[in-house]
Amino acid sequence: MERIDIIYDVYQRTVGNYKFSIRSYYSRQVNLGIGFFVNDLPLPIICYKTDKHKSLPILEFNHELIQAFMKSENYESKHVTSRLISFKSLIKMFELYALTHFDEAPEESLMENEIYQDYMDQLIQKINQLRST
Fold first, then answer.
1. DSSP classification of residue 81
2. Measured over all CA atoms, what is the biggest interatomic distance in the chain, rounded to whole angstroms?
3. What is the pLDDT of residues 26-73, one digit of tens each?
4. Cα 89 from Cα 6, distance rounded (Å)
5. Rounded to 5 degrees, what are φ and ψ at 5?
6. What is the mean pLDDT of the chain?
7. What is the distance between the alpha carbons of residues 130 and 126, in angstroms, rounded to a whole number?
8. Angle formed by the axes of helices 80-101 and 114-131, nearest 10°
9. Domain count, the chain
10. Coil, helix or strand for 77?
């Protein structure tokens, strides 16, 4: 697992049983990155980053950590609709920070990415199941 160094916390918010953070970071391979972190995981679940040779930020997903988050039983069944709205707002805020964090705009939009949309569909399904219980 790649070790990263946090430059600073851009934004942090607790939604239900989860603490979400938007953090600026770097590592041996990453010149500059901005990541969306869940709880105290050492790596972001979603990030935009530039490597040492390319200044155009690229979008990356940590599928293993996302799957762990999606399979978690740490969700609360009350107020799930408002928590989903808060989560989506944080994701949008993350993308806005990414647009201003780098010298150049990222080549790919998170909101238009099919992988992101698939994960959101899965999360909405899980939330709907919680609502019905």
1. H
2. 50
3. 998 899 999 999 998 889 999 999 987 878 999 999 999 998 888 877
4. 23
5. -115, 125
6. 88
7. 6
8. 160
9. 1
10. coil
